[in-house]
Q: What sequence folds into this?
């Protein structure tokens, strides 16, 4: 006798996943009661739960409604029915065999995800509805829909846990790739720009999670897509974002500095928003290397470039914008202990963002400024309090790395202070790849 698959194993057969989901939802409700409510014999429900057969779609709708499954059983049944149809069919004469097989694979992933979600693992099922849409729909999205998707993912990055953002983004990144393969050359140019924007947000989310290797690969994808679109401003914006995020444990500051110099050569001398953002990232890298005079000079160049009032980016303009200058000033002036200029920049930076992660990082810059000016105990206690108060949706490796800047600013002879030890212990206990 063959061994029955584990019902909570996403690799189990679709029938057993459906049966396990149904059994989980039924809980202690008697089979006879369920049968009476959905107008069928209880023994038939028992067969469905054992994974012996699938119910009719009408029964599935009644089951979904009876258990309050919010459409999960309906979607799972729909995906399984489509998968069975594809298993018994062959690609059409004008259909790519690889695309046909990938659609089948997507449906299998959707079924596994929906089954796991029905079994109570909400995280596993987070993106499956959109994965199911991708597997089932053939109609391409309009440019307007794709631009809206970019804005939605950007909003999510600023307000939701980065793990959820990264999982959701993969679905749209896969969808835009499929659409590129089917589109005309004129349409492909715009889809490359969409890919660059989505890949940038995805790499940002991965950086927040401390998934640096994956983030670097997605930065490369974003650069390649921007360059393929021929949009120089977009290419510079991607490079500015990549280099700025590289300073949070992802790359050596010297490497970041070289990348900003390369991007400046690519930009030329014409004032532009992209060039301003690249120079802004360069200023932060110089500050990290202790080159404060050069960092101030780079900030001045950034101001001059922004004063030329360059146009905003034509895709996801709320991401690539001049508000980066205030954040860079806040960080750099904190590092050199210029409290007056730091506080001015802090107020502007706070008012120009609603990203919860950056609120915490700006507060940590104030702690850094205090430590640099000799207030070791006060600064360390403030940094510890900020880290302890960070909401789950704002937690990231970037906030942890900023707190480490505070710790590194403490003079060696004062490392034995209790407040410093408390901050060090808090940062040491932070799990790898996640914030505390």
A:
């Amino acid at each position: 006798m063959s061994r029955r698959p584990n019902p909570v194993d996403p690799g189990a057969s679709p029938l057993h996943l459906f049966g396990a989901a149904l059994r989980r939802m039924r809980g202690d409700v008697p089979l006879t009661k369920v049968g009476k409510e959905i107008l069928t014999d209880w023994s038939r429900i028992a067969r469905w739960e054992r994974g012996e057969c699938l119910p009719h779609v009408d029964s599935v709708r009644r089951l979904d409604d009876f258990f309050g499954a919010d459409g999960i059983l309906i979607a799972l049944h729909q995906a399984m029915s489509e998968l069975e149809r594809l298993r018994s069919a062959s690609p059409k004469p004008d259909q790519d065999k690889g695309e046909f097989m990938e659609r089948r694979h997507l449906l299998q992933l959707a079924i596994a995800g929906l089954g796991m979600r029905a079994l109570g693992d909400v995280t596993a099922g987070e993106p499956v509805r959109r994965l199911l849409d991708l597997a089932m729909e053939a109609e391409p999205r309009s440019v307007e829909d794709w631009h809206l998707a970019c804005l939605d993912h950007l909003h999510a990055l600023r307000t939701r846990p980065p793990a959820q953002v990264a999982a959701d983004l993969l679905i749209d990144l896969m969808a835009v790739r499929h659409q590129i393969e089917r589109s005309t050359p004129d349409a492909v140019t715009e889809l490359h720009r969409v890919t660059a924007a989505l890949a940038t947000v995805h790499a940002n989310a991965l950086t927040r999670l401390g998934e640096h290797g994956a983030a670097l690969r997605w930065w490369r994808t974003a650069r390649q897509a921007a360059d393929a679109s021929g949009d120089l401003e977009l290419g510079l914006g991607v490079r500015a974002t990549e280099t700025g995020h590289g300073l949070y444990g992802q790359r050596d500051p010297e490497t970041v500095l070289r990348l900003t110099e390369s991007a400046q050569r690519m930009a030329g001398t014409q004032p532009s928003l992209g060039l301003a953002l690249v120079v802004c990232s360069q200023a932060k890298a110089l500050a990290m290397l202790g080159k404060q005079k050069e960092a101030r000079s780079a900030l001045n160049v950034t101001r001059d470039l922004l004063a030329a009032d360059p146009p905003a980016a034509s895709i996801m303009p709320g991401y690539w914008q001049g508000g980066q200058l205030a954040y860079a000033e806040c960080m750099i002036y904190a590092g050199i202990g210029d409290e007056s200029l730091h506080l001015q920049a802090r107020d502007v930076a706070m008012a120009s963002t609603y990203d919860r992660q950056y609120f915490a990082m700006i507060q940590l810059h104030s702690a850094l400024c205090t430590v640099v000016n000799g207030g070791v105990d006060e600064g360390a206690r403030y940094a510890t309090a900020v880290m302890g108060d960070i909401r789950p949706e704002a937690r990231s490796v970037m906030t942890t790395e900023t707190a480490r800047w505070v710790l590194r600013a403490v003079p060696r002879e004062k490392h034995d202070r209790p407040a410093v030890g408390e901050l060090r212990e808090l940062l040491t206990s932070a799990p790898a790849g996640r914030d505390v």
